[in-house]
Automatic annotation (TrEMBL):
InterPro entries hit by this protein: CcO_II (IPR045187), CcO_II-like_C (IPR002429), Copper_CuA (IPR001505), Cupredoxin (IPR008972), CuRO_CcO_Caa3_II (IPR034236), Cyt_c-like_dom (IPR009056), Cyt_c-like_dom_sf (IPR036909), Cyt_c_oxidase_su2 (IPR014222)
Location(s), subcellular: Cell membrane; Membrane
Primary location class: membrane
Record function comment: Subunits I and II form the functional core of the enzyme complex. Electrons originating in cytochrome c are transferred via heme a and Cu(A) to the binuclear center formed by heme a3 and Cu(B).
Residues of the Cytochrome oxidase subunit II copper A binding domain: 125-237
PANTHER family assigned: CYTOCHROME C OXIDASE SUBUNIT 2 (PTHR22888:SF10), CYTOCHROME C OXIDASE, SUBUNIT II (PTHR22888)
Cofactor: Cu cation
Record-stated family: Belongs to the cytochrome c oxidase subunit 2 family.
Transmembrane segments: 50-69, 90-115
Comment on bound cofactor: Binds a copper A center.
Protein name as annotated: Cytochrome c oxidase subunit 2
Upper classification of the organism: Bacteria, Bacillati, Bacillota, Bacilli, Bacillales
Name of a matching Pfam family: Cytochrom_C
């Protein structure tokens, strides 16, 4: 009895936790707000299994409560063992056939969607082919058919199938865009495939969903869905030669001296760090910081303070504030 009293005391705590933890899902990082066909079909499967389970629970509890009340020991009733029944063909057939039917209702769409969602669209002429490489703790996106490489912001045309091919450059990560569907692991040395599609022009949150190190929780990215025309314009701009304005040439020289060994600034350049072509247009800085010049300065000065365990060295001791400022001005000219 004492033990039960202690458990009852936990109920307010559980209630508060429920409120707090459900608050975590209020943002767009939710599988319950699908914005593309893959996510919608996956949500349908979740709802289907939930409804079947709720149905089973309701039926079983209804029978249980009925039996409990109907056959309870009444006043004056003698405490005797009731008549023993062994085997009942009708009942046995009913409780075997109903679960089989329920499992079939669950299995047919689950299996068919599972096969559908693992379709490899990489050879499809209408699909956009994107090669994703996960790094500790950032994302590299290559468009082999377009000759473009970028990072952190995955730009896609709306309404088109995006055929992903995913690997990791170091440890295991997982690529996840909850509102579009997924997720899938990225492993070193193994190529996985996935396709997604965005129905709307919007920006969707993406996350790494596999514990991969100190900054796993900060390994975010964005999916920027544009109209086909805007996507084409973006691709053209990414491929155009980078024009350096006269007032940022000092910054460019410093960038070449200090940053170029890891960061490419070209249409399809790859390196140890993210390609920074078109950096001024990105939605976030390092995936998690607001895209402001102040944050860029903080990042260059001491990146470990913002994202522990990442591979970028700190330039705080190496460059003075003016030089870091020049580099930031140069980065903000990369449109
Ligand atoms: Cu990458 Cu977690």
């Amino acid at each position: 009895m004492i033990r039960w009293k202690k458990l009852w005391r936990l109920i307010p705590l559980l209630a508060v936790m429920t409120f707090l933890l459900t608050g975590c899902g209020s943002d767009t990082l939710s599988t319950l707000q699908p914005r593309g066909p893959v996510a919608s079909e996956q949500l349908f499967l979740m709802k289907l299994s939930l409804f079947i389970m709720v149905f089973v629970v309701i039926v079983v509890f209804a029978i249980y409560l009925y039996v409990l009340v109907r056959y309870r020991q009444r006043k004056g009733q003698e405490n005797t063992i009731p008549k023993q029944v062994e085997g009942n063909h009708v009942l046995e057939i009913i409780w075997t056939v109903i679960p089989i039917l329920l499992l079939l209702v669950l299995a047919v769409p689950t299996v068919s969607y599972t096969f559908k969602h693992s379709t490899d669209y990489r050879k499809d002429k209408d699909a956009v082919h994107v090669k994703v490489t996960a790094h500790q703790f950032w994302w590299q996106f290559e468009y082999p058919d377009l000759g473009i490489a970028t990072a952190q912001d995955l730009v896609i045309p709306q309404g088109k199938i995006i055929a992903f091919e995913l690997i990791s450059a170091d440890v295991n990560h997982a690529f996840w865009v909850p509102s579009l569907g997924g997720k899938i692991d990225t492993n070193p040395g193994i190529t996985n495939t996935l396709y997604l599609q965005a129905d709307e022009i919007d920006t969707f949150k993406g996350k790494c969903a596999e514990l991969c190190g100190a900054s796993h929780a900060l390994m975010d990215f964005k999916v920027v869905a544009k109209s086909q025309a805007d996507f084409d314009a973006w691709a053209q701009k990414m491929k155009a030669p980078v024009a350096v304005a006269a007032d940022v040439q000092k910054g460019e020289a410093l960038f070449k001296e200090n940053c170029m060994s890891c960061h490419a600034v070209s249409a399809d350049g790859l390196g140890m760090g993210p390609n920074l072509n078109g950096f001024a247009e990105r939605s976030m800085l390092a995936g998690v910081l607001e895209h402001t010049q102040d944050n860029a300065k903080k990042w260059i000065t001491n990146p470990q303070a913002e994202k522990p365990g990442n591979k970028m060295p700190a330039f705080g001791g190496k460059l003075d504030d003016g030089q870091i400022n020049d580099i930031v001005n140069y980065l903000w000219s990369l449109k």
